[in-house]
Every structure is written in C-alpha cells, then in structure tokens.
Amino acid sequence: MVHTKMLDAYPKDLGQIDKQKLAECIAACFECAQACTACADACLAEDMVAELTTCIRTNLDCSDICVATGNMLSRRTGYDADVTRAFLEACAAACEACGDECESHGSMHAHCRICAEACRRCEEACRDLLASLG
Amino acid sequence: MVHTKMLDAYPKDLGQIDKQKLAECIAACFECAQACTACADACLAEDMVAELTTCIRTNLDCSDICVATGNMLSRRTGYDADVTRAFLEACAAACEACGDECESHGSMHAHCRICAEACRRCEEACRDLLASLG
Amino acid sequence: MVHTKMLDAYPKDLGQIDKQKLAECIAACFECAQACTACADACLAEDMVAELTTCIRTNLDCSDICVATGNMLSRRTGYDADVTRAFLEACAAACEACGDECESHGSMHAHCRICAEACRRCEEACRDLLASLG
Amino acid sequence: MVHTKMLDAYPKDLGQIDKQKLAECIAACFECAQACTACADACLAEDMVAELTTCIRTNLDCSDICVATGNMLSRRTGYDADVTRAFLEACAAACEACGDECESHGSMHAHCRICAEACRRCEEACRDLLASLG
C-alpha cells in the first residue's frame, strides 16, 4: 500500500508513534472520506431523500474531517501531540455520529450499511491511535 | 458579506445558536485557511526555508482544519452539538499552534505576522462560539 | 483584506501575473466555496429537497473545486502556467454549472439566488485571470 | 474495496459511464492525494529542502485537486459531462506536473519515486476515464 511505503520512505525518524496504528488510521481516514462522499450522493438518489437529510449532512462533515485528519497524519515533520489528539477526537466524533446515523437505516440502504462500516473502522482506528499516543 | 446572507436565507430556524458568533467564526475559518495556505507557500520562498519547516507543516494542518470547520459550521441541517464542539476544539488547537509558531518569527517575516493574526482571530472565534454553545 | 496582505508579503517576485485579478480570484474562490456549502445545506432544509438534488450535487462539486483553486492560486512558489490554467478552467466550469442551476430556481429560494451571484463572480474572476495569463 | 461497493450500492442507474474505469480513477485519486501530502512532508524533512520547494508546491496542488476530483467522481447524482471533463483535465495536468517533478529527483528520494508512480497511475486513470466519456 502506498501510504505504508510513504511512511517507510520518510527521511527522518518517525518518533515514538506506533507505525502500524498510524498506517491503519491514515488508510481508514481516506477510505471513510470517500465512503461518506459517496453515501451522501447515494442518499440524494433515494426516493425518500427527504428522510435522509440528517444522514447527508453527517456524511459531509465526516468526509471533510476524514480528509483533514488523513492529511495531518500523513505529515510527520514538526509533530504536535496536542494538535494530533484534537484532530483524532474530532474525527472519531464525526465517525461515531455518522456511523450511528447510517446504521440506523442500514437495513433499508446498502450504501448506508457499507458507509457505517467504514465509519466504525475509522472511529476505531482513531481511538486506537489516540490510546497509543499516551 | 455572503456568509451572513446565506445564514439569513436558511429556510428553517437556526436554533439556539448565537448567529453573530457563528457568522464571525465561519468568516474567520475561511480567512485563516487562505492565510495559512499562503504562509506555507511564502515560507517555501524564503532563503531560510530549512528553518521554517515546522511552520509550514503547522500552516498546512491549520488550513485543512479551518476549511473542514468552516464547511461544518456552514451546515445547519441535522445539527449535532458534540460534533460541532469537537471540530471547534480541533480548529482552536491548530490555530493556537500555528499562531504561536508564526508569531515566534513574526518579527522576521511579514507573512508569518499576518498569518499569526488570522490564526488568533480564528482561535478566538472558535472559543467564543464554543463558550456560547453552553 | 488578508489575502491581499499575504500577496504583498510574498518574499519573492510574484512574476508577471496581474496581482489585482489574482487577489480578486482568490477572494472569489473562498467566498464561492462557502456559499456553495451553505446552499447545499439550505437545499437540504427545503421541503422540496427531492427537487433540489441536482442543485445540491452541483454545489458540492463547486465548493470542492473552489477550495482547491483558491489554495492553488494562493501558492506562488514554483508557478506552473499549465496547471494554473487547468484549475481555472475546471473552477469556471463548475461555477458556470452551479450558477445556472441555482439561478434556475433563484426566484423560489433566496439561498440559490445569493449562491448564483457568488458563482457568477467566481466564474468571471477565473475567466478574467485566465485571459490575463495570455 | 469500499469505493467499488459504494458504486454497486448506488440506488439509481449509473448511466453510460465505464464503471471499472470510474472505480479505478476514484481509487487512484485518493491514493495520489495521500501520497502527495506525504511527499510534501517528506521533502520538508530532507536536509536539502531548499532545493525541493517546487516539488512541495506541486505536491500540494496535486493533493488538493485529487481530493476534489475523487469526491466529484464519487457523486453520480445530477451528472454533468462538461464539469466532469474539466475536473479530469485539471487533475491529469496536476498529476503530470507532479509526476515529472518527483521523477526528476526520484533517484535521490524514495518518497519522490513512490509519489511519482502514484501520480502516473492517477494521470493515466484520469485520461482513460476521459477517453471513455466520448
């Protein structure tokens, strides 16, 4: 995977961070960003779109923070633990909200079910990385 | 200003949020995002770029979270207080880190001085809005 | 305005670009990005959201490309005329599509009317800057 | 892969688009976005960062347009062929510029070599999808 190769190619020491958890979190953020963008759009294509407006909004927030967090985690120069934690908390909160919302109508919409799974993976990856930061 | 007009044009009730503080925070987020992108680039153009790499990285994180937060705040449908708070905390943390970093060499670089001011305004706007959320 | 101050603070020569048109285009991109994000969300809050799904999608594309273009234009180091032109063409195309779409129901929705104006300004700013690039 | 599952779960007809090429292009955009963000940061960590400023700038442009294009392609509602083409042209141009720049010092920096490959894949995926649009 390219993101793992890029971590291996970083020219300085990566510091005390858990490289495996970091790589998983980067991958989960970009996967979840794409899933949430696609889920918002699939909701727009449903006949019952009027009942899915909260889901769409939650998807859009989640997609935005996942890209921001995936980018931040991909940067290792000038590491700041406080900023890292705050992004991870925000990303986990958005993924939790979006996962809950999508799951609540996952039985009706396959895109919500798939998106909820991506949100759960990303939330877990954020929380695992947070826990490892000490 | 367009962002204020858009809040006024929102077709449903905006809820209990302080509209003035919300509008100021949206404006500050987009202003800070642009300033941070430009400051990272201006740092790249300095002869002493090797001493500005932490500043560049901090700028990039701050720009990303400011866009994500400005977008999130611009959405009023399906409001989620927990997600809102987590984004605002992350944005304030990134603005604080970037403001501190830019300020530390603001006497040498006008772009860092201007960017530090934008970061301070955005951090304050985020914290003011956070405080008003109760 | 901060974006103008940042251009003035750029430590090297800005090259042959028309600084006034550049500054206007950067401002228009970030203004339009915010307006499109807010318009997508206001459409979600309309009772007739099912008739506004194309508008929402067009808004989201336009917001994304406006941020990307506003960021790209804010960078002056390592200028590439071909890349600059291609972004501006894409941004103008998205603004034209979104302006047309929003205008078509501007008489019913104030947010679409305001957003259409922001799209027209941004499209014009992109085309003016494109023309000045020679 | 989640992006392919999301295309399969889209509730309406995807239209005449080549689903395989579309899926490859979405994946390539998000992969390239991450690689470019990481490469910009790895360049910042090189002792010779002063010689890599054009590379960093090109990486940042490429990352931004790849996210915008990956998001746009993930949306299938209200499809607009002209907007799609303009984004793909801009993304291909940025990937070509970044691929050329990174390749030019790929022998010295593994992160540039890996990033150049991601840019080539994404440029090719954009051009293949463009060609298939007719």
List keywords for this structure.
mainly alpha, homotetramer, 134 residues
Written account of the structure:
The structure is a homotetramer of 134-residue chains. With 134 residues, chain A is mainly α. The first copy, chain A, has a domain at 17-83 and 130-134. The first copy, chain A, is 77% helix and 0% strand. Chain A has helices at 2-8, 19-44, 53-74, 81-104, 110-133. In chain A, helix 2 runs antiparallel to helix 5 (110-133). The longest helix of chain A is centred in the first third of the chain and has 26 residues, at 19-44. The radius of gyration of chain A is 16 Å and the shape is elongated. The model of chain A has no long low-confidence stretch (mean pLDDT 97). Chains in contact: A-B, A-C, A-D, B-C, B-D, C-D. The A-D interface holds A 2-3, 5-12, 26, 30-31, 33-35, 37-42, 44-46, 63, 67, 70-71, 74-78, 109-111, 114-115, 118 and D 2-3, 5-12, 26, 30-31, 33-35, 37-42, 44-46, 63, 67, 70-71, 74-78, 109-111, 114-115, 118.
Short description:
With 134 residues, the first copy, chain A, is mainly alpha-helical. Chain A has a domain of 72 residues.
Topology, element by element:
The structure is a homotetramer of 134-residue chains.
Chain A: H1 2-8, H2 19-44, H3 53-74, H4 81-104, H5 110-133
**Portion of residues within helices of chain A:** over 70%
> What's the β-strand tally of chain A?
0
Q: Which chain pair shows the most residues in contact?
A: A-D, 40 and 40 residues
Q: What's the tally of helices of chain A?
A: 5
Global geometry of chain A:
elongated
Oligomer designation: homotetramer
Structural class designation of chain A? mainly alpha
Mean pLDDT metric of chain A:
97
Poorly predicted tracts of residues of chain A: none
Strand content of the residues of chain A, in percent? under 5%
First and last CA, distance of chain A: 27 Å
Q: Strand count, sense and closure of the main sheet of chain A? A: none
